[in-house]
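Please, does this match?
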Amino acid sequence: MAKMSSNLDAMIPRSDFAIQDARTSRVQSLDTFEKVTLRDLAGDSNFVYKLLRKPDFQRETTQWTPGQVAILVESFINGELIPAVILWRSSSNIFVIDGGHRLSALLAWANDDYGDGPLSYQFFNRSISNEQKRMADRTRREVASRVGTYQHFATRLSAQSADPDEASQTRQMNFATRGIQVQWITGDADKAESSFFKINTQGSALDETESLILSNRRKAPALVARAVVRASTGHKY
């Protein structure tokens, strides 16, 4: 990695959102939800997470430093502003068009997996570099210092423990009820892909090489380049 970043690529699975069936038009007309809560991502009611996918050509979720991951989790728990995520609904999955790092940071916190946990070990075929492990440990320590562990909040909520001060009570309430706002893209897979590339030319923009590889992602040179960079682990793109 070019910078000291956390590898959260295993948090959200990938899928090809061009694969559709006869149910697509019916699904597009169904009601949508306005926010994604921690209950939707973790625990016993993680129905949204089970449907959540990244486009199969999405670049790796490795753009955030440990500090950025910790700040996102802290902002969530403190009730501070977090930009909405943008989703698109296919016939069988919910695709993250924008906001993959935001959702992945919360998932990493909930699973205690910052690139070195069970999801990551499975995703990378148990081949995780020492550098990735060091960054994961650094991220875990920074999140714990700023916020605490997910398990700490979950245990207190389950035990209905009384928090000692108003700030702690507010954090516990945000943990239990808060969600990230959702904006929806309507239309078919072509509309979703067009929206993805338009949105991702802003912020942490795709550079020329990334754009070239993604636009030719099914051709041999792009697949070989990806395999060499990641030693044939992780996602093929």
